[in-house]
Amino acid sequence: MYRFLLSRQWVILTLVSLLLIPTMIRLGFWQMHRYDERTARNQLVSDALTAAAVPVERLTTPGHTVTRDERYRSVTATGSFDTAREVVVRRRVNADETVGFHVLTPFVLTDGTVLLVDRGWIPADAASQTAFPKVPAPPGGRLTVTGRLMPDETTAASGIKDLKGLPDRQVMLINSEQEARRLGARVLGGYIAQTAPEPKGDTPELVGRPGSEDAALNYAYAIQWWLFSAGVPIGWVVLVRREARDRSQAAARETEQAEPATV
Question: What is the pLDDT of residue 263?
Fold first, then answer.
């Protein structure tokens, strides 16, 4: 009855089924690995955002590389903005996906060290992409700013090409080493995305809170792959039984047709 399983068609189908089962099981474990990674990252972000603000000098120094545990930590700094040497970061979007600039302003601390402050987003001038845009001024004089500590941007991490020959006072990446060379000053590693004080008139727009990754989706995908792997042998058995039944019925009909009619 099951001799058809030795046919070329069924041998191929069986081999494909046998390959699909471990492949789907591995894909399920890979999704669970992604779930664990995203859950851990979400926890790091949550811990950083809820931690009490500390002076920025406790977490970074000139040449320091901001670590995963330090990213998004709330920090404070006291000094004054150096608007004469601020730059804008090209091709940045706001919450509405509108292309514009981020305003990057050096913040000179009391000891002369410079902290890079991303003051937020401003729209691009539709008439000119080369002229330095009109940037609202920050508060003058000595003040304390608060922000989320961020690592230096690189092409490898962000995918943003560090184009050369840009218009004056425009950059592609926020990078403390590059800014240290441009400013000729000691610049703290990384930068901060300003959260306070809030700008007057809501301009520049402060960079939004980082969102959490949807780890639950990976968990659901893992369960889905494992259900698929369980469904493969069940489907194979169903197809085999259906094929055997169809062949048996076809053989019975042929036997009836071959028997001579009786009077």
Answer: 46
Among 14-18, 41-45, 160-164, which stretch is predicted with the lowest mean pLDDT?
A: 41-45
Report the DSSP beta bridge partners of residue 192: 117, 149
- Least Cα distance to 119 among 199, 200, 55, 190 occurs for 199
Angle at 59 between CA 144 and CA 141, to 5 degrees: 15
Is 241's pLDDT higher than 50? yes
Q: Which residue has the tokens 């901060």?
A: 192
The token duo for 247 is 């062949």
Domain boundaries in the chain?
A: 3-43+215-253, 73-202
191-196 and 114-123 strand pairing:
parallel
Structure tokens at 123: 């729209």
User: 171-200: per-residue pLDDT in tens?
Assistant: 999 999 999 999 999 999 999 999 999 888
For residue 62, count other CB atoms closer than 10 A to its CB: 14
Rounded to the nearest 5°, which phi and psi values hold at 121? -105, 140
What would the two tokens of residue 204 be? 């520049």
